[in-house]
Write a structure and sequence with these properties.
With about 350 residues, the protein is an alpha/beta fold. A seven-stranded mixed sheet has the order 6-5-4-7-10-15-16. Strands 11-8-9-14 form a four-stranded mixed sheet, with helices on one face. Helix 2 runs antiparallel to helix 3 and helix 3 packs antiparallel against helix 4. The C terminus is likely disordered. Bound molecules: 5-S-methyl-1-O-phosphono-5-thio-D-ribulose (MRU).
């Protein structure tokens, strides 16, 4: 079964409700941008590229919802939907990338009808391009994975976190498709357990061997020589190669460096934010304390305890062995290599084949 967490069905946007996996596979239909914004906030849909794609589709729905036939009021009402969607989650830059892309389409539309048609087409293009980008990430990344590799991953950077195929899990899928034998170790990823509930679910569906570990077991496995590579996704990559990803990624990267294990980040170019010089400029989402104090709806912490819940952390570029993108693998120093890959992607989009590499 091909996992498509964000897809169109007629005029409805269909999302896999990721809050219910692995117990129940439920698809929910959405016909308003307000519902889509809430789905992003509640993490029905999550993962940087999937959030961006869902927001783009939400904006296509917004265009259907705006009844006004004057272009001026259409733009104003649509813009308030775009602003609200941009406030849902702050860290994954793909959200803002997708909204900007939709805004650029609207700028060149002359009538609401044209806008409705072209915004829907743009959202479909974003979905399709993301799957293609992930397959290309897989092709580039799998070359770094040796046969027999035991690979640690954190959180879920799989099909569920994208429009399909996945970034970090895309690399693993591509290695398997290339005939390599792999075993995946999935960090459970507290507090929301995306590793245990989503990564493990995806890999089990596909028959890729997966072992779930609690987050505090990674060091012990590395020390015993049982991990050959780490592959993770990213929510935002700064111009210098600092990587924001699910909280706990930094600890894994430090452990990997100590044990001389390669630490790879797989992400599409849309996750690279050259406007942010380094990781200190990346906003880190703080989520509700209940995600930490409760598991499965039951309180596990004493009343009265202080809690922090940063959803992401920043891994410094110096701990990253390579950044795998759809246009190739960036190596240190990242300031130069990322700028080159971004220019190459822009060149491909504008049809001149790129300015680099
Ligand atoms: O809070 P989440 O579940 O949206 O966080 C997801 C991650 O941190 C992923 O690793 C990242 O978005 C990359 S997804 C290809």
């Amino acid at each position: 079964m091909e996992v498509r967490p964000v897809r169109w069905d007629g005029d409805a946007l269909v999302l896999i409700d990721q809050t219910q996996l692995p117990h129940r596979y439920v698809e929910v239909r959405y016909t308003s941008w307000q519902e889509v914004a809430e789905a992003i906030r509640q993490m029905v849909v999550r993962g940087a590229p999937a959030i961006g794609a869902a927001a783009a589709c939400g904006l296509a729905l917004a265009a259907l919802q705006v009844r006004d036939e004057s272009m001026r009021s259409f733009r104003a009402e649509w813009a308030s939907a775009a602003e609200a969607l941009a406030r849902t989650r702050p860290t994954a830059v793909n959200l803002f990338w997708a909204i900007d892309r939709m805004k650029r389409v609207l700028e060149t539309c002359r009538t609401p009808d044209e806008a409705r048609r072209r915004l829907r087409a743009e959202s479909e293009a974003i979905l399709e391009e993301d799957v293609q980008a992930n397959r290309a990430i897989g092709r580039h990344g799998q070359m770094l994975i040796p046969d027999g590799a035991r690979i640690l991953t954190h959180c879920n950077a799989g099909a569920l976190a994208t429009a399909g195929y996945g970034t970090a899990l895309g690399v693993i899928r591509a290695a398997v498709e290339a005939g390599k034998r792999v075993r995946v170790y999935a960090d459970e990823t507290r507090p929301r357990l995306q590793g245990m509930q989503l990564t493990a679910w995806e890999l089990v569906q596909e028959g890729i061997p997966v072992t779930v570990i609690t987050d505090n077991m990674a060091g012990m496995l590395m020390c015993r020589g049982e991990i050959d590579a780490v592959v993770v996704g990213a929510d935002r990559i700064a111009a210098n190669g600092d990587v924001a990803n699910k909280v706990g990624t930094y600890s894994v990267a430090v452990l990997a460096r100590y044990h001389a294990i390669p630490f790879y980040v797989a992400a599409p170019i849309s996750t690279i934010d050259l406007s942010v010089a380094d990781g200190s400029g990346i906003p880190i989402e703080e989520r509700a304390p209940e995600e930490v104090t409760h598991v499965g709806g039951a309180r596990i912490a004493p009343e009265g305890v202080q809690v922090i819940n940063p959803a992401f952390d920043v891994t410094p570029a110096e701990l990253v062995s390579a950044i795998i993108t759809e246009v190739g693998n960036a190596l240190p120093p990242y300031t130069a290599s990322l700028a080159e890959l971004v220019a190459k992607r822009l060149g491909e989009d504008s049809g001149d084949g790129g300015t680099a590499g």
